[in-house]
């Protein structure tokens, strides 16, 4: 143990020295970034920096890991917490934490009477400098045990960098929360952080492992009646659903769409052959995953929705709550139903025309008693 500690101290010093020699070194490069950008070197013993431990707050240069990340990622390098809840930074895939500051994101029919703050739309990372506390509703990850009070950028990303997509954590220990991940990091290809926003012609290519990765903290949420809304979360997309996805090109053209131009980033699926420019619909290898319906950081809709699950017409997103309107992929018609329709079109041609799907496809009582959508029976 002593030996290991000494080794780490020496490494801190050594790498800090290398970084001075080579300041242009790319950041987060497998831990080769200048340690002193994030760890304080003042608190030293015999000229050696003290080992970062939880007891000394890992000798971070600011009060929390999340604040540290935001010193470079708030408005730059991906802008994950910018600018204003009704004027977010360009969408790169994960969504944005800025929506956490919205006073109301509830676009249910009576959402103006039952406001739900933006905390319901994001993974609430604790960041004292942004006045952002833990989620007020969930003590832990729904379906799992990860403590909300420890949720930080480093719950999901490895600050020291690794080989994984977006430096996401894989199997093993997560220092924040002292938690263990069972499943590896997911495979994907992403957009350039300083480049164009997501579009139908350029988008994250989700390849594999996305449901398992979220399941590190949530289990297979929605399966086995774990939730009020029951749905497969890691299944192949069978033929009839693939066909529906391919043909659906919006409410004005529900069955006449071109299969080769049917992909929309608002309703992605994972597929090992996916690329950032894929525009065709699902293949027999395509799978439904958590990211089909959710964003990883958050959105201006409840439950980190890629679209707002609570409204009948997604073309009117934000009209009731005043929150940022999530752009609809289909803009030629005034009205567009829940994007669930893209996979379920033949089944819902005749039903569910007057309400959002989850108003009926959810049973029991809601987590917000007296809330907008309460007391529905399972169909
Ligand atoms: C981008 C910021 C950043 C840089 C650069 C950085 N660290 Fe860290 N480090 C952290 C954070 C944040 C933690 C706290 C643990 C966590 O939240 O994952 C940490 C924790 C640690 C720990 C204890 C826990 C662990 O993960 O093993 C050690 C040891 C450590 N850092 C060493 C280093 C060394 C050596 C360097 C330079 C090669 C370095 N760090 C560079 C952000 C950074
Ligand atoms: C001193 C500035 C700095 C700090 C502090 C910092 N980063 Fe970064 N980060 C960067 C830069 C620069 C890039 C590369 C930007 C680019 O590709 O355009 C980057 C890239 C990333 C990426 C994308 C990597 C990829 O493969 O696409 C992630 C994710 C990330 N950082 C997360 C974090 C997290 C989490 C923290 C806090 C532990 C953190 N960063 C702290 C500067 C920083
Ligand atoms: C490191 C653990 C962790 C991982 C990984 C994780 N989550 Fe979470 N998630 C949490 C915690 C803790 C909460 C409760 C705190 C909160 O809502 O901010 C939560 C809350 C949520 C919520 C409810 C938000 C609300 O306020 O009602 C959704 C939806 C969600 N997560 C989806 C996902 C999806 C999708 C993924 C994969 C892309 C994922 N999570 C990965 C820990 C995690
Ligand atoms: C619950 C897990 C989780 C947390 C917490 C989290 N991230 Fe991420 N982050 C992801 C995932 C997953 C992606 C890839 C999403 C995609 O491509 O759809 C990502 C993507 C990114 C990117 C790439 C740009 C983008 O918008 O897609 C950056 C930069 C980043 N995260 C930084 C951060 C910072 C900074 C924090 C803390 C404020 C943070 N993340 C907190 C899971 C998380
Ligand atoms: C087919 C779309 C879809 C998929 C796939 C999906 N979700 Fe959801 N998720 C929803 C909807 C819709 C809601 C809102 C349900 C409600 O209001 O009752 C939701 C709500 C949630 C919540 C919030 C629960 C709360 O109490 O606030 C969590 C957590 C969550 N999902 C996690 C996940 C995870 C983890 C996965 C993958 C294992 C996943 N979801 C896959 C559509 C989906
Ligand atoms: C990517 C395509 C896809 C999306 C998007 C999708 N589903 Fe599904 N859904 C499926 C598949 C595949 C099944 C499983 C069918 C089976 O097992 O026969 C399913 C099953 C269902 C079932 C059970 C049907 C039955 O016969 O038991 C319901 C209800 C349902 N989905 C509603 C929704 C709702 C509501 C949404 C939007 C929040 C949604 N789905 C989004 C593909 C999708
Ligand atoms: C007004 C309530 C209501 C709404 C709104 C609603 N549904 Fe349903 N749905 C039902 C009921 C009831 C059934 C069971 C019908 C049966 O078994 O004959 C059902 C059945 C289904 C099935 C299974 C059909 C089959 O043939 O096996 C799917 C899939 C489905 N709904 C999806 C959706 C989607 C997607 C939406 C939103 C676009 C939606 N529903 C909106 C009440 C509703």
**Strand tally:** 8
Number of alpha- plus pi-helical segments = 7
Low-pLDDT regions: 1-25, 365-379
What is the helix fraction of residues, given as a range?
10-25%
Q: Give the names of the bound compounds.
A: heme C
The overall number of domains is 1
Could you describe the 3D structure shown?
With 379 residues, the chain is mainly α. It has one domain (98-379). Helix content is 17%, strand content 6%. β5 and β6 form a beta hairpin. α5 crosses α7 (341-348). The longest helix is centred in the first third of the chain and has 20 residues, at 2-21. Residues 1-25 and 365-379 have low confidence and may be disordered. The site of one heme C (HEC) has 20 residues, from α1 and α2.
Please give a handful of descriptors for the protein shown.
single chain, 379 residues, mainly alpha, two-stranded antiparallel ribbon, 7 helices, 8 strands, 17% helix, globular, disordered C terminus, binds heme C
């Amino acid at each position: 143990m002593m030996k290991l500690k000494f080794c780490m101290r020496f490494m801190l010093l050594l790498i800090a020295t290398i970084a001075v020699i080579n300041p242009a070194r790319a950041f987060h490069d497998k831990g080769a970034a200048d340690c002193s950008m994030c760890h304080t070197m003042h608190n030293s013993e015999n000229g050696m920096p003290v080992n970062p431990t939880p007891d000394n707050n890992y000798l971070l240069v600011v009060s929390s890991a999340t604040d540290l990340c935001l010193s470079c990622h708030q408005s730059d390098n991906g802008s994950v917490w910018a600018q204003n809840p009704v004027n977010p930074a360009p969408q790169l895939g994960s969504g944005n934490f800025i929506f956490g500051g919205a006073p109301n994101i509830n676009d249910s029919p009576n959402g103006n009477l039952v406001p739900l703050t933006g905390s319901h739309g994001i993974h609430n990372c604790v960041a004292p400098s942004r006045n952002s506390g833990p989620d007020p509703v969930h003590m832990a990850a729904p379906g799992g045990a990860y403590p909300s009070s420890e949720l930080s950028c480093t719950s999901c990303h490895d600050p020291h960098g690794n080989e994984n997509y977006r430096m996401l954590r894989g199997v093993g220990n997560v220092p924040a929360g002292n938690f263990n991940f069972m499943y590896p990091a997911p495979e994907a290809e992403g957009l350039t952080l300083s480049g164009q926003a997501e579009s139908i012609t350029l988008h994250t290519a989700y390849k594999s492992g996305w449901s398992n990765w979220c399941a590190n903290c949530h289990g297979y949420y929605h399966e086995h009646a774990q939730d009020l809304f029951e749905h497969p979360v890691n299944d192949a997309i069978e033929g009839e659903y693939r066909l529906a996805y391919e043909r659906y090109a919006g409410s004005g053209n529900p069955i006449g769409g071109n299969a080769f131009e049917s992909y929309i980033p608002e309703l992605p699926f994972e597929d090992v052959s996916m690329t950032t420019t894929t525009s065709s619909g699902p293949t027999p290898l395509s799978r439904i995953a958590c990211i089909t319906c959710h964003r990883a950081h958050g959105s201006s809709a409840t439950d980190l929705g890629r679209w707002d699950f609570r409204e009948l017409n997604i073309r009117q997103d934000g009209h009731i709550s005043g929150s940022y309107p999530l752009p609809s992929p289909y803009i030629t018609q005034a009205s567009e139903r829940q994007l669930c329709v893209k996979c379920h079109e033949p089944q819902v041609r005749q039903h569910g025309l007057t309400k959002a799907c989850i108003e009926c496809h959810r049973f029991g009582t809601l987590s917000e008693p007296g809330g907008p959508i309460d007391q529905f029976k399972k169909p």
